[in-house]
Amino acid sequence: MCEEILIKGLAPNPEDRFACIDEFDTALAKVINEINRRQMSFTEAAIDAERQFSGWRENNEKLYQVLAKNDEHIRMKLKDSDDEAEYYIEDLLDRLAEKDCCHAILTGDGGVGKTTTCMRILDVYKNQNKQFIYIPLREYNAVSHTLKRHINGVFKIDSDSDYKHMTEEENIVLLLDGFNEIAEYKDQFELLKELDTLRKNKYMQIIITSRDLNEITKPATIGFSKLTFEPVTNAFIDEWLEIA
User: Fold this and answer.
1) How far apart are CA 221 and CA 225, in angstroms?
2) Please, are residues 103 and 225 in contact by the beta-carbon 8 Å criterion?
């Protein structure tokens, strides 16, 4: 936007420049308004993610107290199915960012802590320069709940150019919770098509949780690290019981 104003203002041919100072002021005002609008959108998105976390914490305060201790013996751990590397939730995004692919699919049995992991990521990284979008997939369908529509709603975007800028130029972490809860294969397929486009964007990081990867999804998971939750330790259980 600013570049266009500079190019026009410094055009070699006088006929290609702004006709008068008022035309220049109008163009500059549009840029300032757009910058302010996007800053407000970022703020609202951060509040939205914070509201998600606050609601979860209110309902899971004792669990949060255990996690917040960040004790090495009670931290939740994941293991990479390809190279056996171990990851703690508290440094998950940074560790993934060091790899060729920064995206991951986190799998584990019901109740192992997949939603808790999403909330923990929000808590740990909330003060960093990242925009978080958390989407529980249990009610997802490809007709009304496309990722594009959700992202547009969170950031108050109303044009394709704004959506392109947001998803390609801003640091967005997309937390998609419960892929296995999407009932229809056709809806899974449409979601994966969107993800195949978004995962190629330089500043986008995608984290998906699921109980397992069924056969229809496996070909589409190329480009994602596959991490599995390690069993909860006795130390974690003891700490939980003490607080509870």
Assistant:
1) 8
2) yes
Evaluate whether 169 touches 203 at the Cβ level (below 8 Å): yes
User: Which pairs from 28-37 meet CB under 8 Å and 24+ separation?
Assistant: 30/1, 31/1, 31/2, 31/5, 34/1, 35/1, 37/156
105/174 Cα distance (integer angstroms) = 12
* DSSP-assigned states of every residue in 122-145: HHHHTTSS-EEEEEEGGG--TTT-
Question: Is the pLDDT assigned to residue 31 strictly greater than 80?
Answer: no
pLDDT digits (tens, 9 = 90+) for 132-184: 888 888 877 766 667 888 888 877 888 888 888 888 888 889 999 989 888 88
Residue 23 within any structural domain of the chain? no
User: Is residue 129 one of the residues assigned to a domain?
Assistant: yes
Contact 66, 239 (CB under 8 A): yes
User: What's the predicted TM-score (pTM) here?
Assistant: 0.74
Structural domain contains residue 28: no
Range of the domain at 75: 59-243
